[in-house]
Amino acid sequence: MRWLPIMVLGVASIMGGRAPAQTSAPSSIDQPEAAWEELDRAWRAIEPNDRERIAKATDQTTRRRVATEIDRARAVVFVPRFRALADAHPGHAVEYRALRRLIELAPAVADAKSLVIETLARLEQTLLDQAEVEAILETVRFTSWIVGEDTVLRFFQVIGKKSPLSSARAAAVFHAVAMQTEF
Questions:
Q1: How many helices (H) and strands (E) would you count in the chain?
Q2: How far apart (Å, rounded) are the C-alpha atoms in residues 161 and 69?
Q3: pLDDT per residue rounded down to tens, the chain (183 residues)
Q4: Whole-angstrom Cα distance, residue 145 to residue 182?
Q5: Is there a contact between 46 and 11 (Cβ–Cβ < 8 Å)?
Q6: Are 51 and 107 contacting, i.e. CB atoms less than 8 angstroms apart?
Q7: For 75, how many CA atoms within 13 A lie in the half-sphere containing its CB?
Q8: Are the C-beta atoms of residues 44 and 74 closer than 8 Å to each other?
Q9: Cβ distance 136 to 120 under 8 Å?
C-alpha cells in the first residue's frame, strides 16, 4: 500500500507531469463520443510504460506485484473519471463503455464488491435494450470471485428475462451456463 502514492505520481508524470482531474469527466462533456475518445486516449497513453515496467520484472512474483501496483494506480486515477463519464451520458453507448471499464477496474479498488454491485444494479436498469450488453456480460462473468456467483447469475437472469434483444438474452444464458460449467 505504501507504493500507491508513488504509482499515482508515476502515472501523473507519464501523463505530462500533471494528474488528470479525478472528479470530473473529460472536457467535451456535451459530445459523448469525443468525451470517450479523450478519456480513452489518456488510458492508452500510459499503457506502453505499464507494459515496459512489467517486462522488466525479473520473475513472476515481481511481475504480479508490479501489475497490481499499476492496476491500483489506474483505479485511483480512472474510476472517478469513468464514473463521471457514465453519469454525464445516461442511455448513450458511452455510458456502457464507461461502466464496463469500471467493472474491469474493480479488482484494483479497495471496495471492489460495492463498486461491482453498484455498477451491476445500474446496468440492470439501463442496459436491457442496448446492444452493448453482450460485451459487458463477458466482463461481468469474471467478477464472480468479487461479488459471488449468485449475484452474477442473478444479473444474467435479469438480462435473460427482460432484455428485448434476443442476442442479449442468448448471451446472458451462454455466460450463465459457461460460468457454472467452468472448473
A1: 10, 0
A2: 39
A3: 333 333 333 433 333 433 444 444 444 556 888 888 988 888 888 888 888 888 888 889 998 898 889 889 889 989 999 999 999 988 888 888 899 899 988 988 888 999 999 999 888 877 666 667 777 888 898 888 899 999 999 999 998 898 888 888 899 999 999 988 875
A4: 13
A5: yes
A6: no
A7: 19
A8: no
A9: no
